[in-house]
Structure formats: C-alpha cells, structure tokens
Amino acid sequence: MQQLDLICRPENRHWGFPQSYRSVVPRRFRVARIILCKGSLATPGREAFVRRICAAYPHVPVEERLDLPHNRVEFGEPDPVRRVARGKRTLVFGVIAPRHALWGGDGQGGYYTNRRRLSLYSFCFYDCPFCYLSGRDGVWFSPAVRIYVNLPEILAEADRLATAAGRPIEFCAGDLQDGLALDPLTAYSTVLVPFFARHRYARFRVLTKSVAVERLLDLPHGGHTTLAWTLNPPAIGRLYEPSAPPVDERIEAMGRCHRAGYPVQASIMPIIPYGDWEGGYLDFVRRLLDRVPLTALTLGGVSMEPRTRLLLERRLGPDNPISRNLHPRPGNNDKMHYPPDLC
Q1: Which of 250, 124, 120, 238 is CA-nearest to residue 178?
Q2: Where are any strands of DSSP class E within the chain?
Q3: Beta 115-117 vs 169-173: how paired, if at all?
Q4: pLDDT tens, 257-295?
Q5: What sign for the dihedral angle of Cα 105, 106, 107, 109?
Q6: Handedness of CA 173, 177, 183, 188 (dihedral sign)
Q7: Is pLDDT of 14 > 50?
Q8: Please, which pLDDT band fits residue 112 given cuts at 50, 70 and 90?
Q9: From CA 181, how far away is CA 209, in angstroms rounded?
Q10: How far is CA 277 from CA 149, 229, 233, 292, 321, in A?
Q11: For a FRET experiment, which of 41, 56, 241, 268 has its CA 20 to 30 Å from that of 291?
C-alpha cells in the first residue's frame, strides 16, 4: 500500500491531480459562464488544475467568487425551466466535504454497507427532460454544473473507509451526475482508475451516457472499475435524450471498453411506454446483448418528484408518454411511479 498512500495523502496533493494532459471541451457542453468558488484556488495544485480547464474556454468570462460556496451560486431567474437551462451552461469549481462526496454505506437512502456514492461532479449538461437531478434541492436552487477540485482529500477518505471496512466497498460515480461526461476536461479517470486498480478493497463503478472513453482504454484497471451505461432504444433516445450521445455511439463505446478488459454493464431506464414499446424494448435488449457482453443488465421505470414533473410538463406538455402513466404510490404521495401492471 505504500504507493497508494503516496497518491492519496493530502500532504502530497500534486499526486492527486492528473498530469500532462490537455483539457478538451466535451461535445455538447456549451459554457457561457465560469465561476471559481471557495477553495478552488486554495493550493497551487488546485489552481493549476482549474486554470488548465478554463483555458479550454478562452472566450468565456471567468468570475472569481472565492468567498462563495459552490452551492450558493444564484442565477436571478425565477422561471425554473430557464434557470435550469442557464445552469447547464454554467461551470462552477469548488470543494466538497469528503464525507458528503462519499455519502452512504450506513443503510441510508436504500444504500447497502458495501456501496457509497462518489461525487467529484454535480449535475449534468445533458438536457434530458425526465432527469430527476433537476428537481433535487441543491440543483433546483443552484443548477450549475460543478467540478470539485479536492480530489486528493476525497481519495484519502475513500482509502480510509475501504481499508477500515476490510472488505470490498464499491464507490459509485453517476448517481448525482454523469460519471464520465466531464472527463475530457478533468482527466480525473487517469487518477481514479489506477487508484482503484491498486486498492485491496476499494472498487469503482461509473454510470454514464458519455462516449468519452479514450483515456480509459490504456489505463491499468485490474478489473476493479466497472463501466455502466444508461440506454434506451434509439428512437426513444432521439426523442427524450436529444443532447446526449446517440445510443449507437454509446454501444460502440461499451464495446471498446469491453475489449479493453473492463466489466461493462447497462441500465435501460427510464423505460418509457411509447408506441409499440414492449416489442421495441425487447428487440433493443436482444440487439444490445448481441453486440456487447454484459456483466449486468438493469431495467428501471420512473420515480418522479413533483418538481421534476413540473419541469417535464413545462417542456413536453402534460399529456406526454411519461406523465400520462404516472400514479402516486400508496403511502408516498411525494413521488410518482408507473403502476405495477405497467412495470
């Protein structure tokens, strides 16, 4: 563990940032505003990392708000649809407490003791109208795309938690963000994948719609990083995921990662009853399995909070294929689901 400790200890911060890479603007991430929040320039390593990414957007104004926490950025826009749209074009740098970045593991929120979230980003620049993230408190009031720059401290805490557990712990990136979409800018994968490859207990799972896998293909992963893609049949993707990479491109990226030795999984969700949806989804699953050997396949419906439904219906109207099938679940009127006979 000596080499691992060298990477993770906060006093060796320069080891915790990607080295010798070029920040590349992700496809479809059109940034109009960059804000440097509290802690983002607090060390030479953080400042060099942040400035490198800012240089990828040479014509975008950069605001230094070093007294402002990352989750207090205001947009001055009362309309929630326009506020979210502005947020998806706003890039914020800040720090997150490691305990918040690695939430879970104690039975909260349905999490098991061997699984935790890993949040190095927050929110997502893809513009899927059913996205549950847009209705969450932290996003509803401040819907910026955030990059957290205290990577060494977060990895040090992940190391501590996994080592103390003495058994495999899975750290999952993608529950509160897209786990890979910002990697062209950050190159975080070049630190994360080797970190988990060398660790005795810590494991890594990435959930994404991105096809930015180039940096992953030559990294030493040791089978400790699992890559999972969220998918829908191409016709559904074109209707409801218009700014995400096309489904066929995602499947091609899955195949490339499988050939590089990564365990690859798929989550087909949310399943949307549209047209001949049962036959369409069945055909899609068959074609997917023919193209990519999967270690797991997850199917999921919709669990929608009132704010998310408001945003959805403001964009698509109240009589859309998602809303017209939603019903309250007994004992939980705050969330809407598909009825059991439809699931």
Answers
A1: 124
A2: 33-36, 62-64, 90-94, 115-117, 121-122, 145-148, 169-173, 202-208, 225-231, 264-268, 296-299, 303-304, 327-329, 332-337
A3: parallel
A4: 999 999 999 999 999 888 888 999 999 999 999 999 999
A5: negative
A6: negative
A7: no
A8: low
A9: 7
A10: 42, 20, 9, 22, 11
A11: 241
Instruction: Provide the angle, in degrees to the nearest 10, between the axes of the packed helices 277-291 and 247-259.
Output: 30
CB 24 within 8 A of CB 185: yes
CA-wise closest residue to 177 among 129, 219, 145, 142: 145
Asked if residue 133 lies in contact with residue 80, where contact means CB atoms within 8 angstroms, the answer is no
Decide: 100 and 271 in contact? Cβ < 8 Å: no
> Among residues 271, 260, 279, which one has the least CA distance to residue 297?
271
**Three-class SS state of 19:** coil
Residue 266 backbone phi and psi in degrees, to 5: -140, 145
Give pTM, 2 decimals. 0.91
Calculate the alpha carbon distances from 267 to 45, 206, 228, 235, 260 in Å. 36, 12, 7, 17, 20
Residue pair 202/196 in contact by the 8 Å Cβ criterion: yes
- CB-based contact 85:139 (threshold 8 Å): no
